[in-house]
């Protein structure tokens, strides 16, 4: 794993390291890391394991994958013994039988239990009852060594494919009793994992703390690209900002694109993205094609593909999709639920949006074009891809030259009384009849926007620097001038909001939006994101 990938992750790493320190002191808190594919969960886990090497711990890291239960059990045992023996400077090799023989000298009780387990699993046809006995080996080794054990299961939902009877019921029993075993789980299936944690692994003792791993923040993405592009002469103005916007801060995409730039001196950004996303050998083309292959091969696959194409084409209002696709609401809801469950889209009030912005772009200008084309030649699709990408780059660069106040004023003009959900709050996006900029008289918040409709009045303020309690107080004072009519008081913080300022905002009933919140609106209305 490349060290330069580990950016903007200090907060996550500090939380995880603290949980492990607490575990060594006798307080156990199991952890579930969830985040969409390629957001950097595995990199974070590996950094944690490098940081937390300790003679008091036995660390078992296992990437779960499609295989039979016996294969999983042997890898589980191999990883357990390998990590115990290698920590004691015992010569080891990645062979289970070799490791068991070596372990007999140092942990004879554990070695005997492992041999008994491996013997029994070979003789019984059904393996589904062996999950608890496998986990019980952790009890044996912790009792024999006096050490605690940290078990890390990467993409743990793959366990569901092992044929284990009552998987979560059996696992829950061990989670409650295994006081000297801490589990760290990771998963890219965000929706499914939340369901499992809430329904199947919600325990009074041994429950999981959920940590959501997000893509890089804007500043970290730009710093990442600055470091990667250091010394390169072909980097044009606007490239870095556009890539931060286009990739959504995905560590995988930032790495893939920057590596392609480094390997293609003199090539333009459009040429590089075309090769990655349009050519069959391109890493992103292959990644997205695999997603669509899975989607199209499912029951009702044709409907799912048609729905995804419609959303990519700009029809992201749920109320419009039924008419467009000729589906009744119940049938449409079932199709949408499939895309939600598979983390292809997410729902924001009455809107749908792709969890992966680059995938949506590819779907519209590559996959959909190929499906509609009458020619085996993909020249026309590539030309459209290049043309639209150039338009997007130009639009992004043009918008970055505008003040945020002006861009939000334009955004408010697109509202049509739809409902959006930002975090946990549902907000009606009133169709304003009047929108104009404001300049506040005093305080750190000087720029704003006012929007009026027949039954709504919004006041929005913008702050480039961290928002303080004084800023909230001054903004609230300005809003009181409209107290008889005011519907929404929103302060957009382009950087941090101090803790006391958040509390003050709650008292004043002021909504605080961060950069990600306002960018969600820009995404939904197909406008370039704000990158500061």
Keywords:
5-stranded parallel beta sheet; Rossmann fold; 22 helices; disordered N terminus; alpha/beta; 5-stranded mixed beta sheet; Arc Repressor Mutant, subunit A; 532 residues
CATH architecture label name of the largest domain: 3-Layer(aba) Sandwich
What is Rg? Answer: 27 Å
- Per the CATH scheme, the topology name of the largest domain is Rossmann fold
Gross geometry: globular
Characterization of the model:
The chain has 532 residues and is α/β, with parallel strands linked by helices. The chain has four domains: 3-212, Rossmann fold, CATH 3.40.50; 218-267, no CATH class; 283-398, Arc Repressor Mutant, subunit A (Orthogonal Bundle), CATH 1.10.10.10; 404-524, Trna Endonuclease, Chain: A, domain 1 (3-Layer(aba) Sandwich), CATH 3.40.1350. Helices cover 52% and strands 14% of the residues. The protein contains 22 helices and 14 strands. It has helices at 10-24, 41-51, 69-87, 96-106, 108-123, 131-145, 167-177, 190-199, 218-228, 239-247, 251-263, 269-277, 283-297, 301-312, 318-325, 329-341, 357-372, 379-400, 404-412, 469-479, 499-507, 515-524, and strands at residues 30-34, 57-63, 148-154, 181-187, 208-212, 345-348, 351-354, 418-422, 425-429, 434-439, 447-452, 457-463, 488-493, 511-513. A five-stranded parallel beta sheet has the order 2-3-4-1-5, sandwiched between helices. A five-stranded mixed beta sheet has the order 10-11-12-13-14, sandwiched between helices. Strands 6-7 form a two-stranded antiparallel ribbon. The longest helix has 22 residues, at 379-400. Mean pLDDT is 90; it is low at 1-5.
């Amino acid at each position: 794993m490349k060290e330069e990938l580990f950016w903007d992750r200090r907060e996550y790493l500090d939380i995880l390291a603290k949980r492990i320190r607490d575990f060594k002191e006798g307080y156990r808190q199991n952890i579930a890391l969830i985040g969409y594919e390629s957001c950097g969960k595995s990199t974070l886990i590996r950094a944690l394991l490098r940081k937390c090497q300790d003679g008091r711990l036995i660390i078992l890291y296992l990437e779960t994958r499609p295989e039979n239960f016996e294969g999983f059990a042997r890898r589980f045992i191999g990883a357990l013994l390998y990590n115990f023996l290698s920590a004691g400077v015992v010569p080891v090799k990645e062979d289970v039988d070799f490791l068991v023989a070596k372990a007999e000298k140092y942990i004879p009780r554990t070695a005997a239990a492992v041999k008994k387990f491996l013997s029994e699993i070979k003789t019984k046809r059904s393996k589904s009852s062996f999950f608890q006995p496998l986990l019980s080996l952790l009890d044996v080794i912790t009792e024999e060594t006096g050490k605690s054990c940290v078990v890390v299961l990467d993409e743990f939902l793959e366990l569901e494919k092992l044929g284990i009877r009552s998987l979560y019921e059996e696992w829950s029993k061990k989670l409650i009793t295994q006081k000297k075993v801490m589990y760290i789980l990771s998963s890219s299936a965000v929706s499914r994992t939340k369901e499992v944690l809430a329904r199947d692994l919600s325990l009074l003792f041994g429950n999981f703390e959920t940590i959501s791993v997000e893509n890089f923040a804007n500043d970290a993405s730009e710093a990442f690209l600055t470091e990667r592009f250091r010394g390169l002469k072909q980097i044009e103005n606007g490239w870095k900002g556009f890539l931060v916007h286009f990739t959504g801060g995905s560590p995988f995409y930032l790495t893939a694109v920057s590596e392609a730039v480094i390997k293609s001196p003199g090539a333009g950004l459009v040429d590089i993205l075309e090769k990655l996303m349009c050519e069959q050998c391109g890493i992103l083309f292959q990644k997205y094609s695999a997603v669509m292959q899975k989607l199209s091969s499912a029951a009702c696959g044709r409907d799912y593909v048609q729905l995804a194409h419609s959303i990519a084409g700009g029809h992201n209002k749920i109320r419009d999709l039924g008419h467009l696709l000729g589906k009744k609401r119940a049938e449409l809801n079932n199709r949408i639920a499939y895309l939600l469950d598979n983390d292809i889209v997410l729902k924001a009030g009455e809107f749908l949006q792709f969890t992966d912005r680059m995938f949506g772009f590819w779907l519209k200008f590559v996959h959909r074009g190929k499906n509609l084309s009458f020619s085996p030649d993909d020249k026309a699709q590539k030309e459209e891809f290049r043309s639209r990408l150039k338009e997007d780059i130009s639009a992004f660069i043009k918008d970055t030259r505008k003040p945020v106040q002006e861009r939000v004023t334009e955004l408010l003009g697109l509202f049509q009384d739809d409902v959006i959900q930002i975090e946990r709050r549902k907000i009606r996006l009133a169709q304003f009849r009047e929108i104009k900029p404001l300049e506040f008289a005093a305080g750190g918040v000087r720029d704003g926007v006012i929007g009026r409709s027949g039954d709504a009045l919004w006041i929005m303020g913008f702050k480039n620097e961290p928002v303080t309690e004084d800023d909230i107080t001054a903004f609230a004072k300005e809003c009181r001038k409209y107290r008889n009519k005011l519907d929404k008081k929103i302060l957009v913080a382009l950087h941090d909001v101090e803790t006391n300022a958040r509390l003050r905002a709650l008292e004043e009933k002021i909504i605080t939006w961060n950069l990600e919140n306002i960018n969600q609106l820009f995404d939904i209305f197909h406008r370039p994101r704000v990158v500061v």
